[in-house]
Design a protein that fits this description.
The chain has about 400 residues and is an alpha+beta fold. It contains eleven helices and 13 strands. The longest helix has 19 residues.
């Protein structure tokens, strides 16, 4: 995203009932089941969902008490919780196959700690974290409001609120904001496609969701009706996995910063925290958020890189986008490495990631959420005092 000038920027979100998010939810349900039984279990679970079919595949290492039968039951319960009991996709009668198998010994030998060798990264790769002060959550505004619109509608649907009667689990949103001098000032257009029961009039859906969208946006930001696109195809009855195949990890931009910041390419859901695709991306967000929360910069991007089987990152890079006037980025890189052990073990222990905390991350973004207890610990700003002290603030 540009640092200056007038421009439009767009981000999208998808609801928990979107096919890819159904797959993410099931994969994280499997992960949480293993971590509840053994905090050090290893999981890399992929899920496919389509018309009345769910397929689990991947590698695990954990207690025998987590059986295929139990995971099949949990997959059904996850679909039930989302709200799918439709002819083409139902928690009751969908076929559920479990093809999870033992973790590769070649991966395990590189990742496990042994003797004087610390636990290594579960894969090579680059991970990014980002924060900006344009919202209270320190997230980019377009993805923040795209998530908020869908979360608002979904919470009302789950509560049985008559304002959204007839709306079903699958939905997508898209928010375009007008930026002036790198600050968002208004929405120029909003798109919402929401699955609905047969027979509903589109005019009634428009009237129902328009005030909810307006309430999610800051006062005065609502776009004109001519730029409010509600179910622009005209009908959205067949949805969820019956309308489109879903796969784990296909919504990585929705999961992170809505395209406003770089992405290393690795998905999160279904992966235990030895996989730095997930844990290091959480750590990078945590560090970037604390930098901005400490007032050291208006925007912060952090890149961390790893090699499989190697404990410590190969590099840590910080970019303040010209918004940290008197903060030397090289010094900040050194300070952040001193404040947090960025080995897989260090990240897991610092952020308390060896726990069944992942199902809530599977929809509406992994970042910008409220840290509560053991959940979303990477959203805490507890490094702010140390960062301020290090830079004389």
């Amino acid at each position: 995203m540009r640092d200056k000038g007038d421009f439009l920027f767009t981000s999208e979100s998808v609801s928990e009932g979107h096919p890819d998010k159904v797959a993410d939810r099931i994969s994280d349900t499997v992960l949480d089941a293993f971590l509840a039984a053994d905090p050090y279990a290893r999981v890399a679970c992929e899920t496919l969902v389509t018309t009345n079919r769910i397929v689990l595949a991947g590698e695990t290492r954990g207690p025998d008490s987590v059986t295929s039968e139990h995971l099949i039951h949990l997959a059904r319960e996850a679909v039930r919780d989302i709200g799918y009991d439709q002819e083409g996709f139902s928690w009751k009668n969908a076929s559920v196959e479990c093809h999870l198998h033992a973790q590769s010994a070649d991966i395990a030998v590189g990742v496990d700690s042994a003797g004087n060798k610390d636990e290594g990264a579960g894969d090579q790769g680059i991970m990014f974290g980002y924060a900006t002060n344009e919202t209270e959550s320190l997230m980019p505004a377009p993805i923040h409001y795209a998530h908020l619109i869908l979360r608002t509608i979904n919470e009302l649907r789950r509560a049985g609120d008559p304002r959204v009667a007839g709306l079903l689990p699958d939905a997508k949103s898209q928010v375009t904001l007008h930026y002036r001098d790198a600050k968002p000032i208004a929405a120029t257009s909003v798109v919402l496609s929401t699955q609905h029961e047969a027979g509903m009039e589109q005019a009634d859906i428009f009237a129902a969701v328009k005030p909810l969208i307006a309430a999610a946006l800051p006062e005065g930001w609502m776009c004109p009706d001519s730029e409010l696109y509600i179910n622009p195809t005209g009908n959205f009855v067949i949805g969820g996995p019956d309308g489109d195949c879903g796969l784990t990890g296909r919504k990585i931009i929705v999961d992170t910063y809505g395209g406003a910041a770089p992405h290393g390419g690795g998905a999160f859901s279904g992966k235990d925290p030895t996989k730095v695709d997930r844990s290091a991306a959480y750590a990078a967000r945590y560090l970037a958020k604390n930098v901005v929360a400490a007032g050291l910069a208006d925007r912060c991007t952090i890149q961390i890189s790893y090699a499989i089987g190697v404990a410590y990152p190969l590099s840590v890079y910080v970019e303040l986008h010209g918004t940290g006037a008197d903060v030397e980025e090289a010094k900040l890189e050194k300070t952040l490495r001193e404040l947090m052990n960025l080995s897989p073990r260090g990240i897991r222990e610092h952020l308390k990631l060896n726990a069944p905390i992942y199902v809530p991350t599977s929809a509406y973004g992994h970042f910008g959420r409220k840290a509560e207890g053991d959940f979303f610990t990477w959203e805490r700003t507890d490094l702010v005092p140390a960062l301020k002290s290090a830079f004389g603030r």
